[in-house]
Amino acid sequence: TIMLLLTLFVCVSSALAVDYSNHKVIRATPTNEHQLRYLGELTSNYDFWKEPSSLLAPADVMVTTEEAHNLRVNLRYHRIPHEVLHENVQSLIDDSKTKPAENK
User: Fold this and answer.
1) In what helix (H) or strand (E) does residue 85 lie, and over which residues does it extend?
2) Per-residue confidence of the chain (104 residues) as pLDDT tens digits?
């Protein structure tokens, strides 16, 4: 599903010529109901690639560098395990554009 989302993201970003340099994808995994509800509240404020759905199911959110700091502070405050899944979304987009050419 990440590849499908990335492909869709590439198509949209190409059409809009948006630069996602230094945008990050953070994966957060709720371990209790409070954390799951908190992540659900964030869906209106952030660009979730994979929305929170259940306990122990990771949620992936794309953020700017500035947003990443605040989000990670809040995730730590709520003791939500998280990691930076991708440091630079633009490099993912660029890599996915060159991969089909490499397979020819």
Assistant:
1) strand 82-86
2) 666 667 776 666 555 668 889 899 999 999 999 999 999 999 999 999 999 999 999 999 999 999 999 999 999 999 999 999 999 999 888 888 876 655 54
The tokens describing 94, both together, are 């660029």
Task: Measure CA 97 to chain center.
Answer: 19
pTM over 0.90: no
CA 17 to chain centre: 19
- Is 30:36 a contact under the CB 8 Å cutoff? yes
Which H or E run includes 33? helix 33-42
Q: How far apart are CA 20 and CA 40, in angstroms?
A: 24
The span from the CA of 29 to the CA of 27, in Å, is 7
